[in-house]
Design brief:
Elements lengths: L2 H8 L2 H15 L21 E9 L4 E8 L3 E12 L18 E2 L4 E6 L1 E4 L2 E4 L3 E5 L7 E5 L2 E8 L9 E9 L1
């Protein structure tokens, strides 16, 4: 047994604990978890392709469309048009149906960009980014995507549409 072992055994437990706490306090600043991550420099392309999708959306329904991003790029999604479907009059129906013209709507819809997933309900669009917005000319959803296949979903999640409606949506990417 050497002299160092003898001193350590005779050192009171509180003093040894204090030595460990002091060592940890000195080492702690090296483990700062509040530092910002360093981004990986990757070129992200501006959109070079615009895809246009149209469809008819039922009350409380959802539709999805797929697009292929060829290279890491920005993605811009715009719901450009939403119009209630015209209804023909049918006075012989029970109850009678009154005619209703096609009218532009300002009803906000959920727009989601994601990747397709297979669920018990069928193919769905997982949510990578989502927004609730009315149709307009300004982009409602923007972000960045790695190359791959993505989907855009248009949904009346609140059941706010007065009746079925046609829509037009654009997806710009590279």
């Amino acid at each position: 047994m050497d002299l160092g072992d003898l001193r350590l055994r005779n050192m009171p437990r509180a003093v040894r604990m204090l030595a460990w706490v002091a060592a940890a306090a000195i080492a702690a600043p090296a483990c700062d978890r509040n530092t910002a991550p360093v981004p990986v420099p990757t070129p992200v392309a501006k959109p070079t392709t615009t895809e246009n999708y149209t469809g008819t959306l039922s009350v409380s329904g959802s539709n999805l469309h797929f697009f292929l991003v060829q290279q890491n790029s920005e993605v811009h999604v715009t719901l450009t048009q939403l119009t209630a479907v015209a209804v023909d009059a049918n006075p012989g129906a029970d109850p009678p149906v009154a005619a209703a013209p096609a009218t532009p709507l300002t009803t906000p819809l959920r727009i989601t960009v994601g990747q397709q997933v297979l669920t018990t309900l069928g193919v769905q669009c997982s949510s990578l980014k989502s927004v609730v917005a009315a149709a307009g000319s300004a982009e409602q959803l923007t972000g960045q995507a790695l190359s791959g296949t993505y989907c855009v979903s248009v949904a009346d999640t609140s059941g706010a549409l007065p009746r079925s409606a046609t829509y037009a949506i654009t997806v710009a990417h590279s």
